[in-house]
Design goal:
Layout: H1 2-23, H2 32-54, E1 56-61, E2 71-75, H3 81-86, E3 93-98, H4 107-113, E4 117-119, H5 125-140, E5 144-147, H6 165-173, E6 177-182, E7 198-204, H7 214-237
Parallel strand pairs: 1-7, 2-5, 2-6, 3-4, 3-5
Antiparallel strand pairs: 6-7
Helix pairs in contact: 1-2, 5-6, 6-7
């Protein structure tokens, strides 16, 4: 039954995504915010499909910890679900992403129009400079900069490997950084076809104020995200309070 539900979800998810990509084409001629609003609607609908077909809910905690205006958001990344769980929670978000993603037909056009922040890793140190410049402009416009500090999805419980890019952004932007912990890898694992029912928890932690030195910031960020994510993994696997299947007032 779980295999069948996963199959139905995968077909519905990619068919739905294709339809949204077609429907969103007119927004290329509209103001940038139009693409973001349609993308947020796509994410919300994707989470509805996840809940209805697979039985996987998403619960957000600590939304009141997101400061108004421009800020830096550094999130754990375990699953494709993370994009959908985060995107609708912000007024004017922009993701830091690999430049290669902007080369994908349709998807890349929308990412460019939405003024996401592409990173060309082949440029080495120059890539950091380009990222900082675009991020400064985005924060000046009151946007929220979303970055995955490890640069890619990691399996639940894997050893953390935080990169320096998030520390460069923190020092350059001089705005609060909101750490985000989650346990999505338990339910929508990377490189695995079968999805699990339960509750994905996305928890926004206390913001780290600007002004820390690079090493202190990176250590603080990693400690907060990893300790909270470990707690959520225990909860989601049934070894902690609430256990898998917990439902709360902010469930989607």
């Amino acid at each position: 039954m779980l295999l069948f539900r996963s199959l139905v979800f995968q077909v519905a998810f990619y068919l739905n995504t294709t339809l949204w990509l077609i429907a969103i084409i007119p927004t290329l001629l509209m103001p940038r915010i139009a693409i973001l609003r349609v993308a947020q609607a796509w994410s919300r609908f994707s989470l509805v499909l996840l809940r209805v077909i697979v039985g996987t809910r998403v619960e957000h905690r600590g939304l009141d910890r997101i400061p108004p205006g421009g800020c830096l958001v550094a999130s754990k990344h375990q699953s494709f679900a993370d994009i959908h769980a985060l995107l609708p929670q912000f007024d004017d978000p922009t993701f830091v992403l690999k430049r290669e993603l902007t080369l994908i037909p349709f998807w890349g056009w929308f990412a460019i129009k939405a003024r996401m922040i592409p990173i060309d890793r082949a440029k080495g140190a120059a890539a950091i400079s380009d990222m900082n410049k675009l991020a400064v402009e985005a924060v000046r416009d009151g946007r929220q900069i979303l970055i995955y500090p490890e640069g890619t999805r990691t399996a639940p419980g894997a050893a953390p490997a935080y990169r320096q890019g998030v520390a460069h952004l923190y020092r350059t932007l001089k705005v609060p950084c909101v750490p985000v912990a989650l346990n999505s890898g338990l339910f929508w694992p990377r490189r695995r076809f079968v999805l699990e029912p339960g509750t994905i928890v996305v928890e926004f932690l206390d913001p780290i104020p600007p002004g820390l030195d690079r090493e202190t910031f990176l250590r603080t960020l990693q400690d907060r995200i990893e300790s909270a994510s470990e707690r959520l993994l225990l909860e989601g696997s049934g070894a902690g309070p609430g256990a898998r299947g917990y439902t709360g007032p902010e469930n989607i």
